[in-house]
């Protein structure tokens, strides 16, 4: 005689099946020696089980970070572990304390310890920063992470990636003074100043830029470090605009764009652009002509470069240029060329800068 299973029985059987499958996957991860296959197993683990049984997935990942046989993956797993661990989940403090004693795990272990222990680990991280036996990127990482967490400007005017810091960049004396005064929170960094029309666009240019900004905002929300802000459209410095005006008579549409929505370290990732597109802002436009129309080594103008073309962006060093000889209705066409061919050959890319901007906004 057949009986329908009640909801509780079905749910219990589903849990048992999930447990069996998860345990099987765990053993596969432990046994796998091929890095590519291992990567696929980890992706499967995260995709199928991270939201269902987070603690068990964390148990698998932390155990592998300690004992796994593919050594470089022990380090690669730490960002995933940190992402899955909740803020102030104290049961993982011991694990991250162990990580910062392991040379291959220190770098990401620093962030894990901060996430779980907060300011209570400042002293331990400062000792890492002061430890001259460690390599500079590790010491710099400790300072960078402390800066972000405490909103203190120990990372001011330095590269976003602490891997590029030099030993003399480490503000040890400053950090020790901060430690002595009780680890006071700082004010952090102010957001770059943006134009009001980004939120209330009226003209075609403003609407296009507003759409572009929403795209950049999504990137900023995922990863933003205001000590080195990236992917912003900001109000340009008047000094930069005056320097540009002394050099070129730009079409009004592009001039307004630079003035009100100057790209600040804007990089567009898209299949349309080789190695992504770097769109220049007012603060870098003059310098970015180097290697195209100007040779910074000889300090001379390059005669082969057409004087009517201003490079406004590049994709893997392939220049995108606005043509000042074809200004019409306050705009001008954009031309593209390929570098490394021995001679510059330009082809029309868009009929106007506004069309170019629309393409970027929709890319």
From TrEMBL:
Q: Where is the Knr4/Smi1-like domain?
A: 237-358
Pfam families the UniProt entry points to:
SMI1_KNR4 (PF09346)
> Which InterPro entries does this UniProt record tie to the protein?
Knr4/Smi1-like_dom, Knr4/Smi1-like_sf
Q: Where are the transmembrane segments?
A: none
Entry-linked SUPFAM superfamilies: SMI1/KNR4-like
Question: What domain of life does the native source organism fall in?
Answer: Bacteria
Name of the featured protein: SMI1/KNR4 family protein
